Amino acid sequence: MELIPENNIVRLVGTAAGRPTLSHESRGEAFYRLPLTVQRLSGAEDEIPLLLRRGQLEALELQEADKLRVSGELRSFNNRSGEGARLVITVFARTLAFCGEPDENFTQLRGALCKPPKLRRTPMGRDICDLMLAVNRPYGRSDYLPCICWGPMAREAAAWEVGARVQLAGRVQSRPYIKMTEDGPLEKVAYEVSAAEIERLEP
């Protein structure tokens, strides 16, 4: 598998599925979240959260249902508020533009396993392996990104140890699930990279 050497690449083409909402401010700059829906070949849709700078929104005058092309990287941070997911996944948009192209969802990662792989089987009898990949950013930071692979790839990846270097290509997907709480069932959404190709790198 030939991959370009960058550790973390995301390319998306999809449709704005809402209005931007303020996420946070850092070093005097405001960042906004925007949901982007991307259609799969099956017709199902993934709703992927984008993280945008205020300047990007002001330059585009973005409206709901606009078709967008996005390039950037997959980011994670720990939510310590006690509400929502503990590990929050977003696509940090480095470039953002209007377009009329077909939907696209491509992700390429290179990093190290930071948890033991977990092999399981779906109710339909298909093997799936859960992986947590630590992907380095500049300045000593890392993103911790949940990934999955299927079938023979899953059985192979299940034997890899923590610290193994891995590269993969696939897509970001959203997966709804039900979490049981003290107040009853709660509908939630998980985000992960579904790998179409994956390989272990030599040390």
Give an overview in words.
This protein has two domains: 8-105, OB fold (Dihydrolipoamide Acetyltransferase, E2P) (Beta Barrel); 108-200, OB fold (Dihydrolipoamide Acetyltransferase, E2P), CATH 2.40.50. It is built from two helices and twelve strands. It has helices at 54-60, 151-157; strands spanning 8-16, 21-26, 29-39, 45-53, 67-78, 87-98, 104-113, 118-121, 127-136, 142-150, 165-181, 184-200. Strands 1, 2, 3, 4, 5, 6, 7, 8, 9, 10, 11 and 12 form a twelve-stranded mixed beta sheet that branches. The longest helix has 7 residues, at 54-60.
Summarize the structure.
With 203 residues, this protein is mainly beta. The chain is built from 2 helices and 12 strands; from the N terminus they run E-E-E-E-H-E-E-E-E-E-E-H-E-E. Strands 1, 2, 3, 4, 5, 6, 7, 8, 9, 10, 11 and 12 form a 12-stranded mixed β-sheet that branches.
